[in-house]
Amino acid sequence: MKQVVVITGLGDGMGREVAKMLVAAGDSVAGFDVDKKGVASLEKELAAIGGDHYLESLDITD
User: Can you name the residues that pair with 6 across neighbouring β-strands?
Assistant: First the structure.
């Protein structure tokens, strides 16, 4: 069953890898991170995978 998953902290590390895994499995990912460069590079990776995703760079502590 396709899921929509929200991930905070996906600019690098575990969040990034989980996002790639979920998109590759056919799930939709909405993700956020304060690291603009990390979000931009992940955007390119997920586009290459071809999955459904929405990424934004923001600080959730604001």
Answer: 30
